[in-house]
Amino acid sequence: MQPRKVGRRQVLRALTLAALALPLPGRTARAAGPAASKVTPELTLAAKKEGKVIWYTAVDLPVAERIGKAFEAKYPGIDLRVERSGGERIFPDAAHFIVWKRDGILAPYVPEDVALHYPAEHKDPDGLFASWRAWLSVIGYNTKLVKPEDAPKSFADLLDPKWSGKIVKGHPGYSGTIMTATFQISRDLGWEYFEKLAKQKVMQVQSSADPPKKLALGERAVMADGNEYNLFQLKEKGEPVEIVYPTEGTPLIVGPSGVLKDAPHPNAARLLQSFLFSVEGQQLMVDFGGLRSMHALVKDKAGRKPLREIKLMKDDPAAVEKQADEIKARYSKYFKV
Questions:
Q1: Of 192, 225, 289, 323, which sits most exposed with the smallest number of CB within 10 A?
Q2: Considering only CA atoms, which of 23, 45, 2, 326 is closest in space to residue 186?
Q3: DSSP E strands, the chain
């Protein structure tokens, strides 16, 4: 299942095809794609004869290994090897799947759960991929350093002088999550927001996983962006962190999954794809990984705010492609990094 290498510029150019690859509201539906595929005894037997499958993913390693062990327990005799690295090497987001679709290296395969329980906007009309996971970039604060009544409730609140020197945030030139969040925020609030935020003596870190870590350590009182799922994990371990869903809306990031056409273990790959999109696989991803699922039957973990109750900003990968260089340039100009 190893993907061939795709250059960053190629990926960004391919983002312009995003509108063609995913259904858009108000457009006439295209011809039906491949039929849904059930997990049959024949598929299971063929997968067990292959005996192994490789899962390339950018999800946190403990989460990937937990899901992998659950797959192996459900299908004994199939060895699952996790190949995990950062997003720049493994290509986890929708943009890269657009590249693979255009280049013809994805195999059509629609798990039954995707066909029955996923909204149209989260599955490729040609059956090549679907939204395996989603996550949010949120505001957060350290509960030992900030009282709930004093915590920021919005992006606008972060511009209050009282937060000067107390904020940490990720960088869009390093993190795809932060790039997407920066685009959505600048589109909805204007670049004036970032110009003002840059004057708040912000601690600049790299990845979207770094702000939650700094927050938990007490190195900064507030984070301006970063992974919701990291804060879920920290909070549930007893760390002094709390999540804020800004009143203006919260940036949404989506990560698809698909099967490669030249996968060396094609039947095991399809069986794994079906498991990843099953209620069992999705619930494990949500409960243990802190991620969000688009599966209609998957439940939010107790104590977490349901996704349906959160005001979300709209993702637009094609627009990100057009503005990527401008986003990095303007951000670097304002934050001097």
A1: 192
A2: 326
A3: 36-37, 52-57, 79-84, 106-107, 110-111, 130-136, 139-142, 167-169, 203-204, 222-223, 241-244, 252-257, 259-260
Give the per-residue pLDDT at 14: 37
Q: What six digits make up the tokens of 75? A: 């299908």
Q: Cβ–Cβ contacts within 10 Å for residue 312, how many?
A: 15
Alpha carbon distance 136, 77 (integer Å)? 36
Contacts of 34 (CB under 8 A, 6+ apart): 108, 109, 110, 126, 127
Contact 117, 295 (CB under 8 A): yes
Type of residue numbered 136 = L
Beta bridge pairs of residue 242: 141
Nearest C-alpha neighbor of 203 from the set 247, 251, 167, 241: 167
Q: Which domains does the chain have, with CATH numbers?
A: 8-130+259-301 (3.40.190.10), 138-250+315-335 (3.40.190.10)
The DSSP result for 209-259, as a single string, is THHHHHHHHTS-SEESS-BHHHHHHHHHTT-SEEEE--TT-B-EEEEEE-E
CB atoms within 10 A of CB 184: 24
Strands 241-244 and 167-169: unpaired
Burial 69-99 (b: 16+ CB within 10 A, else e): ebbeeebeebebebebeebeebbbbbbbbbb
* 3-class secondary-structure state, position 83: strand
36, 110 Cβ separation under 8 angstroms: yes
pLDDT along the chain (337 residues), means of 10: 44 34 38 85 98 91 94 98 62 68 94 97 94 96 98 98 98 90 97 98 95 98 97 96 98 93 96 98 96 96 94 86 88 94
For CA atoms 257, 33, 294, 309, the dihedral sign is positive
Q: Of the candidates 239, 204, 240, 247, which has an alpha carbon nearest to the alpha carbon of residue 224?
A: 204
Round to whole Å and give the CA distance between 281 and 96: 23
Q: Rounded to the nearest 5°, which phi and psi values hold at 92? A: -90, -10
